[in-house]
Amino acid sequence: MKIYQNLGKFIKNWQNRTENDHPIFVHHTGAMFGIGALASDRLAIERINRLKHRESSKKYIVLFANHDWLNKYQIKTTTRINRLLQQLLPGEVTFVLPCDDDRLAHLASEGKIAIRIPTSPFLREAIEQLGEPIISTSINKSDEEAVNDLKVIESLNWADFALVPPHISHSSYSPSTIITFEEGQPICLREGSLSFEMIRRSCRKPLVMFICSGNICRSPMAEYYFRQLVQEKKLPFRTTSAGFIDTASTISEHSQTVLAEDGIDASQHFSKLISLELTNEAWLILTMTKRHKTDYIELDPNVEHKVFTISEYLNKAECGHNGDIEDPYGLDIYFYRQTYKTIKCYIEELIKKIAKE
């Protein structure tokens, strides 16, 4: 089994295959090793069925390259499901959703297919280069434990080649959580590495998270004003805020004062650091500056599609502001009031936008 760690060499070899080739290949999803083939290659899929001693009636998970492919392959969703897709993919959640695309009909069960966007940027780029989805399954015979050691996988001699990022030779077995929907509500088909309770909570009330540097000035102002408007308008959203610096502090005095002038009590606020748990649970992440956005994506490239500066996500012209919301920390309260005025305008625009959706 030839192992490709260079995507360009892999694609060049792939393009040289003949019409009689029906290759199957090992890959790493970002959480575990899998074996798969082009979603359209039924002969390759049958090869995998025979290797796994798996009934051909059982369907496989289909891996997409990015969110745009959901429309490309006619995956039927709703606003609520779209929010979950934005929140959780790329990630370790598989969605079983209706699909009207004939190209995937052989992978459907009762009109639905199981789809996921993998967390591995390497694999996503490979799928993009291949030009169509792949099917993916664990490397094991039915009812046996999955193999997650590359040397052992090589010795099985199942695959024609492997497409694996450098430095990955072992992996834990971390199956995805699988969900579907009935009457708009999520149903857990398999609980895996992501909590179904978190998914259900997010479906009911999506989480909007605001980000600044220390989580004691700008982002708490946004969080607490957003919470007040959500409560007033009885909208189904939750909110939180976090920062990059571990200040371990209560809200700044001037931020607390300007919120209190609006009748908002933020005295119980205590700063939080950005965490994987918060990132997974957030549907929408709004930063105060471009630098915050860039730094967040550097921490976790898989969140790129759901992290925005607050000014780029909303109507800048309406708020008379264009660009970063600068930090008033250490300045006179006048500057806090100006900062809060700008944040309020953006939050009001945000409420209008999400209420329409």
Brief sketch in words of this structure:
With 357 residues, the protein is α/β, with parallel strands linked by helices. It is built from 14 helices and 14 strands. A ten-stranded mixed beta sheet has the order 1-8-2-3-7-4-6-5-9-10, with helices on both faces.
Radius of gyration: 23 Å
The CA-CA distance between the termini, in Å, is: 49 Å
Shape by Cα distribution: elongated
Provide the domain count: 2
Helix segment count? 14
Class by helix and strand content?
A: alpha/beta
Please characterize this protein's 3D structure.
The protein has 357 residues and is α/β, with parallel strands linked by helices. The protein has two domains: 2-194, DHBP synthase, CATH 3.90.870.10; 205-356, Response regulator (Rossmann fold). The chain contains 14 helices and 14 strands. The strands form two sheets. It has a ten-stranded mixed sheet, sandwiched between helices. The longest helix is centred in the C-terminal third of the chain and has 24 residues, at 333-356. The N and C termini lie far apart (49 Å).
